[in-house]
């Protein structure tokens, strides 16, 4: 996967139609969802090819705590639409990421 649209296509193929409908929509006129998509389009990744990454360090500090892999998971609900273990599976994934480092 190389882009958000790749991820969306995979999700649409993997989820039930009810789950995809829920995850791919917003409330009311979907204005917040549209605003969020526009905000993400303003970000650009700078490709850095042919660089020495042998000493790459992904650690960062958040609120005084150092974490190895800076991925945050926002508070959401309805994870059971995508996985039988729901939010518990998400929490396990976050904890296992930190333990495996």
UniProtKB/TrEMBL annotation:
Its cofactor is FMN. Residues 1-101 form the FMN hydroxy acid dehydrogenase domain. The keyword Flavoprotein applies. Pfam families: FMN_dh. It comes from the Eukaryota. Keywords: Flavoprotein, FMN, Oxidoreductase. This is Hydroxyacid oxidase 1. It comes from Geodia barretti.
